[in-house]
Amino acid sequence: MPDEGWGDLFSRSDDILADIIVPVVGKIKDETVKVRKAIENKEFSASADTIIVEEDQYDYRSISFTAWIGPDSDRERVTREMPFEGRISEAIIGFRAGTQNAVGVRLEDSQSGEKYFPSNPETKFFGAEDFTHPFKLSVDVEKDQEIDAVFRNDDPDNGHLVNCVLTLRGEY
Fold first, then answer.
1. End-to-end alpha-carbon separation of the chain, Å?
2. Which residues make beta-bridge pairs with 32?
3. Beta strands in 15-82 (DSSP E)
4. 44 to each of 37, 40, 41, 47, 51, how far by Cα in Å?
5. Could you give the count of Cα atoms lying within 13 Å of 62 in the half-sphere of its Cβ?
6. What is the pLDDT of residues 78-116, one digit of tens each?
7. pLDDT at residue 121, as a whole number
8. Residue 117 burial (C-beta neighbours within 10 Å; 0-12, 13-18, 19+)
């Protein structure tokens, strides 16, 4: 009698193989053949010699402008001299919670007054509330050129800290 138990076990295994596993493997094989044929009908190519890796030949500097602006003050101007010829590629402007859009910032050339940020001509200052964000810029600068961050505070009751960081990129 024990032999019949083993026979039933092998019969069930054969049934599982025949009814479940073999059809699944067959479907996988069929799908693989379809994918292979689809690939063969397309022209694909890749070449390692088309990949170009260049060393970064730029010097990057972060130039910080920070000001504490008293209540209802007209303007606070912070001037920084550019350490080398290059391009301002980004300005990160930050406003602390509580500024309630009453505090603003503008970036401009110290000599000519040309406004670099905010970029639209009708806006004199950019203000926000609890907000820090990088803004892309593309401003060419000369060595020793002076850039101003002009801050204003229209809040009649509170002073506020405002900051701005410029990313300057220049060639070695």
1. 89
2. none
3. 58-69, 76-81
4. 13, 9, 9, 10, 16
5. 8
6. 999 999 999 999 999 999 899 889 999 999 999 999 999
7. 77
8. buried
Name the residue among 104, 106, 102, 59 with its Cα closest to residue 84. Answer: 59
93: nearest Cα among 134, 149, 136, 62 = 134
Cα–Cα–Cα angle for 108, 110, 115, rounded to 5 degrees:
20
- Averaged in consecutive runs of 10 residues, what is the pLDDT profile of the chain (172 residues)? 54 67 72 69 53 66 91 87 94 91 94 92 88 94 96 92 92 66
**How far, in Å, CA of 12 to CA of 18, rounded?**
10
Under 8 Å between Cβ of 104 and 152: yes
Taking the C-alpha atoms of residue 142 and residue 160, their distance in angstroms, rounded to an integer, is: 32
- Reading the block at residue 155, the tokens are 């809040």
Q: Are 168 and 107 in contact (CB under 8 A)?
A: no
CA angle 166, 170, 172 (to 5 degrees): 145
